[in-house]
Amino acid sequence: MDVKTRLENMSPEFTATERRLSALLLMDYPFAGLLPIQELASNTKTSPPTVSRFVSKLGFSGFQEFQRQLIEELKEGQRSPVDLQKTSAPVQGAFLAGFLDRAEDILETTKASVTEVQFEKVCGLLSDPKRSIYVIGGRMSDTIASYISRHLRQVRVKVFQLPPDPEVWPEYLLRMRPRDILLVVDFRRYQVSLAKLANKAHRERHAQIVLMTDPWMSPVAKNASEVLTVPIDSGTLWDSYTGALALMEAIVTRVAENNWDQTKGRIEAWDASRIEFGETNEEN
């Protein structure tokens, strides 16, 4: 279990001092926990022995083991397909059936990773007609960002997908108003430019950041008000986006149904405005 999950799961058991430590660690996770113990104690107005007792309560033998765990989590977030292949577990038996079994496991874990309360909150944010929605993903995960932006544009107005070229991003940043949503999809190996974009959107434009990421946490999480964490490790050289795509499909469906009369009218107007090129049996 990663440190962030331990902090969140054990929060009801914390004392006031421990809650202060936990809040600081989560505010700049995982980097706050990599500070020297004296500095961490000073930043939380506690003492090194208090910090030591706290990490012991989290299940670590000492502060060094606690920091080693954080360093391992950082390394996990930077693993490439070449790194993953070295520790991958071959699919046993019939390859397709075995691979789909792993995908099914990822879906089950996804179900446990996002609570209904958090899911409904994110769907509510994306349904709010007063907010504009800006969407972007990383090198590979932009496929998922494109999926949700294409569907949301048929459901509601004011949905924009940012292009991958950072030179164009200022145009979108200058459009953002306070309380608008920047939805970021970022999985390992995280894209530094996305973290910088989220920081500017949050601090300068006062936009609300919603992040979809993996258990090792994109740096975008530092500025995110909502973080949807989904499993991606399939035990092969490739990370799996099975859970991420299923969650996005659930979000799109929920947002569309939140105000079906409005959605229905939007889809009908959208279809009526399409330019036909003679294709038949079109997809949605």
UniProtKB/TrEMBL annotation:
The record, for Pfam families, names: HTH_6, SIS
Keyword Glycoprotein present in the record's keywords: the answer is no
Query: Which InterPro entries does this chain map to?
Result: Homeodomain-like_sf, HTH_RpiR, RpiR-like, RpiR-like_SIS, SIS_dom, SIS_dom_sf, WH-like_DNA-bd_sf
For this UniProt record, give its keywords in alphabetical order, as a comma-separated list: DNA-binding, Transcription, Transcription regulation
- On the tree of life, the source organism's domain of life is Bacteria
Respond yes or no to whether keyword Transcription is given for this record. yes
Q: Where is the HTH rpiR-type domain?
A: 1-77
Protein's name in the database: MurR/RpiR family transcriptional regulator
What organism is listed for this UniProt entry?
Parasedimentitalea maritima
Q: What is the lineage of its organism?
A: Bacteria, Pseudomonadati, Pseudomonadota, Alphaproteobacteria, Rhodobacterales
